[in-house]
Amino acid sequence: MVYDAEYDVAVVGGGHAGIEAALASAKLGAKTVLITLDKEKIGVMPCNPAIGGIAKGIVVREIDALGGEMGKAIDSTGIQYKTLNVRKGPAVRSPRAQADKEEYRKYMVNKVLNTPNLTVLEGEATDILLKKNTNEVEGVVVDNSIKLKVKSVVITTGTFLNGVIHIGDKQIPAGRMGEKPSTGLSQFYKRVGFPLQRFKTGTPARLDKNSINWSILEEAPGDEPPPKFSFWTDPVGSYWFKEGQKEQVSCYITYTTPETHRIIRENLHRTALYGGAITGVGPRYCPSIEDKIVKFANKERHTVWLEPETRDGISIYPNGLSTSLPEDVQWEMYRSIPGLENVILLKPAYAIEYDIVPPTELYPTLETKRVKGLFHGGNFNGTTGYEEAGGQGILAGINAARRALGKDLIYIRRDEAYIGVMVDDLTTKGVVEPYRLFTSRSEYRLHLRQDNPILRLYKKAYDIGMLTPQEYKLAKETEEEINSWLERYKTERIKEGGKSITVFEFLKRPDVDTEKLKEIGIDIPDRDYVREAVEINTKYDGYFEREVKLNEKMRNLEKIKIPADIDYSQIPGLRKEVVQKLSKAKPLTLGHASRLEGITPASITAIMVYLEKMKRERKGD
After folding, report:
1. Is the full-model pTM beyond 0.70?
2. Do 361 and 341 belong to one domain?
């Protein structure tokens, strides 16, 4: 076959997963092409113009620690910053920021267009070509005509694959409002035998800022000083803004009313969701307003956050009012809410259905089990959120590049990052509804905190090639500085009540912080990041130890790899359904196998015994 051009890696889709995948692949030295319908739409925020949130903000910092771009982008383009769960422990705190969506898009377009080893090609990927008589990637077809020879492909089509927008009984084929869907790849997936699932998500209307009565609404300002996402934004590793930044923009709070609920109930039959037009499964944790009214019928009101989409523009995002009601009913519904009595809708709300491939079709490396060299990331794996997409994208991009360059693939363990938790959940358990990350999904919550992603991941990122020697040096020196202060506090002593105790024991107390140490003449770290880390590691010392012991068994199982050529049917004691499940899932480790639904401890023991037998037999050879 004659090809029009040759690359190492092709990334399909210019959303948040595609951006991180393409940038990571190019950074690792793979000649990369990003195929997208419109290069000016790279980094568009089609739903809420925000980055971060519970667990999500930690993922952004993990992407950053792995050498990704999302954290730097939001630090450069945010208009309001908050730390969530500040009244709770540090294990569940998380940063969140409203973005200027236009500035964020421009930042990402500029970054992608000016990255070495990365080419942007406008068009629709319509087919994936496989090597003759194999299930291994050889090329990508664009617009049914251009043939690109590649060694790896990353598919990050988001909501575009067979996307259909619903507004009441009106249906519009689209990947996003005003953008055509991707349809060509569906035939490839059907031809190769991949199953497809139908999912649904939605977005609220956009409101005219000048038509809102702000005077009666509750103001929600940002935090001062505002938390940063990227460890690298400040050269000394601080998460805080320097002086001289622009002022933050406030959000505002209002609530639905009994009249709102009445309007929705009387028109449920006209919604796409309850009228029967939508067959896809929607996100449980980000439901439409009609879903809330039905499922929480006794709740008198629901909170609505009015969030600006840009610093200087007029478009307001009413967070909490996603709907598929007809447009005429939307106007009536929105105007029943305090402050919105005379509101003007700039764009109607809509629901969107799209196809995904079940993530159980993937290894934890995000490579598909059916096709070597084919990787999936983002909403196409059944997730929601820009952050979840970016976390999958960077892993898929790293592995696509490594596959193309002839290197071993990597995966991220559950105890290393929330990215690892998410990918493990997806690939072992699958999805019956759009997946969203929460801290409660992890058994390592005290370890996977918002303050330490760089310390958890910098060695792995450097070994892969995602961090420069200078970045590695800064991260290593930061870790050493934290450890030095901890060791100092464990030996330095103070007098209290006639007794001598260590500073470490004193700082463990709930009413003592580093500022208190400073007041009584104890030296404290100069850097905010180091000071915070020292305080957290001191106060949670006993809890960390307990968590480590509880999860030690699981960590040991993660170290035991399962050979790719294992024949589960030859393992004594495994039931037929267990053999079928394991053969389909193809777990990489015993830990991976143990988390599959229906795999009992007895099954894990049987596999362990068999692996030991295999090991002895191979040594004998």
Report:
1. yes
2. no
